[in-house]
Amino acid sequence: MNSSISQTAANGDRLKIREYIGYALGDTASNFFFQMFNIFLTFYYVDVWGIPKVSLLWLIPVVRLFDALNDPVMGLIADRTNTRWGKFRPYILYGAIPYGIAGYLLFAGPEFATTGKIIYAFITYMLMMMCYTVINVPYSSLMGVLSPSSRTRAVASSYRFVGAFAGGFLISTFVRPLVKFLGGIDEAGNINYVNGFKWTMAIFAVISVIFFWITFIATKERVKPPKGQKTNVWEELGELVRNWPWIMLLIAAVLSTTFIALRSGTTLFFFKYVIKDPGTTIFNIGSLDFDRADIFLSTGMLAQIAGTIALGFLARRIDKKYAASILCAITGISFMAFYFLPKDKYILLVVINAIGYLCMGPTSALTWALYGDVADYGEWKFGRRSTGLVFSASLFSIKTGQMVGGFLLPLFLLCFGFVEPKEVDGVKVFAEQSPKAILGIALAFSIAPGLIALLKAAALFIYPLNQKRVSEIEEALNSRRAAASAEKE
Predict the structure, then answer these.
(1) Structural domain count of the chain
(2) What are phi and psi for residue 288, nearest 5 degrees?
(3) Is 32 exposed, middle or buried (CB count within 10 Å of its CB: 0-12, 13-18, 19+)?
(4) Which of 276, 340, 416, 466 is the most exposed place for a label (fewest CB within 10 A)?
């Protein structure tokens, strides 16, 4: 991977391998929590901790909406930060510990009554997402200032998403076995999943803090705003909404996170109620037991990593926006196929899922690399570089997409008559789901996310900055910066 994708960077702007890897570990840390939210949070709230599904219809959207509005604010704050470490790296250093604590608290699972659980979930979810904003808007913005080269940023993005999907692989592969192992047995003789989630999250929280600190140490900010640039919040916001590439990229990114959140959140419901998989252990690693759902999730993440590694090959041969659009369309078709595939053909399900995720890996990396091009476009067109504000859109899109995806899943469960488990004499009893409820879960896992992925593919195709246009803007900015430097001398 190192030799292939590093060659795509311009010689003068190529970064050292340790910086690419250091930057990538930041998204590994982010995805320890991001994938926990996507895959396990709704399942944990409804099936493990016992929050009524109807409460999630307002809890998740309210938190996500409030938090999404914080992202542009954080971008503006970061753009106005000036320290010896740069604009964005200080937030990675100081935000790491609060981020880890908030993630642990989200899955701490105290023994409250139903109302207390809802209040606790609301407060801790809100706290977690605020910490996520404080550290991830600057982290995402850091990509835009690692190098002035669009191709070098694409390489950094590919490393980043290898790191991201590695984090997702660890979560999808080891969380459920760790939960079973660390949970122990409760008084009723069952695995204590609440304790299992709590201690599992504690482990990943500590690792995430360490990884963010490595990112801070390994990276450097190289692209500076134009000399004498004046800041004006309303003018910058006005320039942002007039930045057509940013608008199209925002739409694509919101759609992306929506279908990822919806499908990931439905996976465990799909295996439990549609496939009717009993969770039988397939193999062991020490004291950790792995079942079919674990293998399904982990192979998907491995396929994402493989696809992202192939980004170097794509970046040298295909325009980023067209490559992302085509690959996203393939992902959408793969997801929709699950509605029609026989549910007893497990190997076929794994293979089709791997194809979808193989294409989704480079799509995500390519889409995020486009944000650096959008920041260049804004500087070229308006004479002002607002890297933090532009990249805050990436976090805004994540939060908005998770809000929509997080709302759609409980909505499907409610509208199709899903019956949540009830506790009887200290024992959790799971209801037999109706054919209508099973249909709703199947649609939420296949047709719905597949259609949203196809809409994202269309948005990326419409996105106006192809590689030829990006290269022209890059040359113009380099000339402008060289002239400003010569004038200063």
Answers:
(1) 1
(2) -95, 130
(3) buried
(4) 340
Q: What is the dihedral of CA 82, 85, 89, 95, to 10 degrees?
A: -90
Q: How far apart are CA 308 and CA 72, in angstroms?
A: 28
| pLDDT tens, position by position, 335-387 | 999 999 999 999 999 999 999 999 998 887 777 778 778 888 888 888 777 77
Q: Please choose, from the candidates 221, 161, 134, the residue with its C-alpha nearest in 3D space to the C-alpha of residue 25.
A: 161
Give the CA distances from residue 341 to residues 301, 333, 349, 380, 447, in Å, rounded to whole numbers and listed in that order: 21, 12, 7, 49, 12
User: Residues near 180 by Cβ (< 8 Å), separated by ≥ 6?
Assistant: 191, 193, 196, 288, 289
CATH number of the CATH domain containing 410: 1.20.1250.20
**Measured between alpha carbons, how far is 233 from 239 in angstroms, rounded to an integer?**
10
Neighbours of 136 (CB within 10 A): 30
Q: What's this model's pTM, rounded to 2 decimal places?
A: 0.70
pLDDT surpassing 90 at residue 14: no
Residue 350 burial (C-beta neighbours within 10 Å; 0-12, 13-18, 19+) = middle
CA dist list (Å): 209 to 27, 83, 203, 403, 411: 12, 21, 10, 25, 34
Say how far apart CA 237 and CA 251 lie, in whole Å: 17
- At position 452, the amino acid (one-letter code) is I
Domain that includes residue 314, residue range? 12-488
Residue 36 in this model has a pLDDT that exceeds 90: no
**Are 128 and 59 a contacting pair, CB within 8 Å?**
no
Angle at CA 383, nearest 5°, toward 379 and 386? 50
Residues contacting 460, CB < 8 A, separation 6+: 248, 252, 321, 324, 325, 328, 367
What average pLDDT does range 423-431 have in this prediction? 66
Contacts of range 117-123, beta carbons closer than 8 Å, 24 or more positions apart: 117/49, 117/50, 117/51, 118/51, 118/55, 118/59, 121/45, 121/51, 121/59, 122/59, 122/62, 122/63
At 222, is the secondary structure helix, strand, or coil? coil
Residues 9-38: what's their mean pLDDT?
Answer: 83
Residue 397 is assigned to a structural domain of this protein: yes
Alpha helices, DSSP H only, in 12-88? 17-35, 42-43, 53-79
